[in-house]
Amino acid sequence: MTGTKMRPIRKTIPVEDALRLAGGAARPLDRTERVELDACGGRVLAAPVAAGQDVPPFDRAAMDGYAVVAEDTFGAGRTAPRLLDCIETVHTGDVPTRTLQPGQCAQIATGAPMPEGADAVVMVEETDRRGTEVAVFTPVYPRQHVGRRGADIAQGAELLQRGDLLTPSRLGSIAALGIAAVEVYARPRVALLSTGGEIAPPGRPLGPGQIYDINRFTLGAVIREHGGVPTPLPTAPDNLDELGRTVDGCLDHDILVFSGGSSVGERDLTLDVIRQKGELLFHGIAVKPGKPTACGVVGDTLVLGMPGYPTSCLSNAYMLLVPVLRKVARLPPYLFRTASVPAARRFVSTPGRHQFYTVRVVDGRAVPAFKASGDITSMSQADGYIEIPARTDIVEEGETVEVKLF
Amino acid sequence: MTGTKMRPIRKTIPVEDALRLAGGAARPLDRTERVELDACGGRVLAAPVAAGQDVPPFDRAAMDGYAVVAEDTFGAGRTAPRLLDCIETVHTGDVPTRTLQPGQCAQIATGAPMPEGADAVVMVEETDRRGTEVAVFTPVYPRQHVGRRGADIAQGAELLQRGDLLTPSRLGSIAALGIAAVEVYARPRVALLSTGGEIAPPGRPLGPGQIYDINRFTLGAVIREHGGVPTPLPTAPDNLDELGRTVDGCLDHDILVFSGGSSVGERDLTLDVIRQKGELLFHGIAVKPGKPTACGVVGDTLVLGMPGYPTSCLSNAYMLLVPVLRKVARLPPYLFRTASVPAARRFVSTPGRHQFYTVRVVDGRAVPAFKASGDITSMSQADGYIEIPARTDIVEEGETVEVKLF
Predict the structure, then answer these.
(1) Do A173 and B93 touch (CB under 8 A)?
(2) What CATH number matches the domain at A60-147, 3.10.450.50, 1.10.1200.10, 1.10.10.60, 2.170.190.11?
(3) In chain B, which residues have pLDDT < 70?
(4) Is B134 on the interface with A (CB under 8 A)?
(5) Rounded to 5 degrees, what are φ and ψ at B174?
(6) What value does the mean pLDDT take over residues A367-389?
(7) pTM for this one?
(8) What fold, for B15-31+187-329?
(9) How much is the ipTM here?
(10) Which residues on chain B are in Cβ contact (under 8 Å) with A160?
(11) Residue B259's pLDDT is what?
(12) At what angle do helices A215-225 and B168-176 cross, to 10 degrees?
């Protein structure tokens, strides 16, 4: 604002356009890193995983019981057991030492390798041990209760693709192949640059006219939840040259988020530096709160100019930053946990603006939690939010709303 | 199994009873730790947070524009502007130096402290600057566009309670008070003890009869996702004395999860050591997969004996370990992301057993992903699972099922 004319926002674009423009400018990361399997939960595979071996690596018992020649059990019954000679016991981790002949069996544990000659397992529940003999009370067919070599994963199969999210079960399937570390996409690096001369870090007393930095913490937590690595930077300088140098120093980051200041002057400075060093994609979204939001690209870095009000900044983070960040991180679109509940009262929205409305769920109904613009407690005491599209002005009491839960 | 008679499971308890018993034995942690706010996302507050100061700490402008004496603007209009004398400019972080008199105004940025004497802000869009004079085109009422001191958080208010989950907006509200670190509950420590002589760690070649450890990785990832800290331990010894000593060494953990072996013998050893050192709560759940699951308490440590099959172990982890772990961690019950879709074909379930059925969602319909018991790919290639209660035998094609997404 220093000496310059204030330039208010006179034109805004619909939220859908903002998402399309910002999403179009967000480039999925190509940077990769090798990570131990133990630490790969939630990461994204950067190379396919092919099976170098069969899983399981040998035919194995699928039940505790006796490995048998299936044909020996045909016709067995509760009153007409077949008696087999038990020649050895195979524990898991053992290797059978003898080949089964007709009339013989081997006691076997779930997971232990099948002896040569055996082709089925009789469950222990269907047997009775009598010294070295075993009475079998039920017939089994060939391969019954046997886990065949390669049945789970066949050698050479492409188990997982590049871009697959590493869920617990997928980590398990990689472990099954004996692979202890994999190549995953790096986490997006997100620089957080607070603007605004009034912003002070928590942990020390405030000077006159100062308030504590909130956005660094709300944005940092959102960024971590969605696969990014936030780097909070010192408060941005308030002249164009110095701000330009600060931005230059951030260009090794994938995303740069301005936040903290909310005055027109500070915003203009942010816009000027984006225009000077790169391209401004839009400024002003028809959304409430969060109208004074800008997006641009400087070098390979996506730049978001978030409004300074903590609630506006955080609601914008949920609506705009999260989809952009997840695209850069190559994470699938985020599915909010939701609750579909009736509105506890009429919600009135600003015509022509997409509205982000914080609510609490009380007795199974959505109650407004909104206090005043900028009040962090209107979000911290909410259970989630509803969105009212630009074309809708009113949600009537009792109408079902979908609450996106925080 | 070594030398002992195999003891198959003859009795099982319903899954609801298992959850009740295990949940009843799970004690919420009392251990706390002090953590920097930057790293507190997803943690649980161990002490209330009270406001030591007002937020905002002063009356401030809620819009960019001009601080005025509201009365001066009464009757203003587009064709009848009120002309005010602009006596200073207040940036954010500034402190106003002059007291406003009637007929005067001060240019002010959003977030900047209101000058003495001013009681409202006119938005810049409703003004026109003419040298040192400002034309005001609209009336404002007292307090309009002013964020009042303490309006967001009043000094002395109890902002957050013990037990509150630290969401991004709650972290923001703590930051707003200038608090840089808080006391949170410690993360539950979970020891993972693989049993089974066949289990080998990934990263080196398999010996004869061996398979790679899968459960350590699937359980580890689930435990991390739900607020726990997994500690994988070396493979458990296969005699009671040594196993007892290993268990004694784990009693500084909050939860001990046996996993990996699945033979009756290994399971019996686990049961014997729980009985010898503590109390066995149950053994055998009427659930498929995952029947041979045990639960007990040794000292202050909750002990879960999970089946060795990777799919059984992991489905049990979702059904039993997650609720227990979250209770110990003081996290709210987990809300799965779900998709309600029609069944693509008839699902047949085992009567009397609660069934966990892995599915893929293909063209908006739930398709079974189950291969064979123990096949990790039947989970790693699934999108989620459906549960079929013990009293239901059949889900017909087209019937709506709720898929819990991985």
Answers:
(1) no
(2) 2.170.190.11
(3) 1-8, 10, 260-266, 373
(4) no
(5) -70, -45
(6) 88
(7) 0.93
(8) Molybdenum Cofactor Biosythetic Enzyme; Chain A (3.40.980)
(9) 0.92
(10) 380
(11) 87
(12) 160
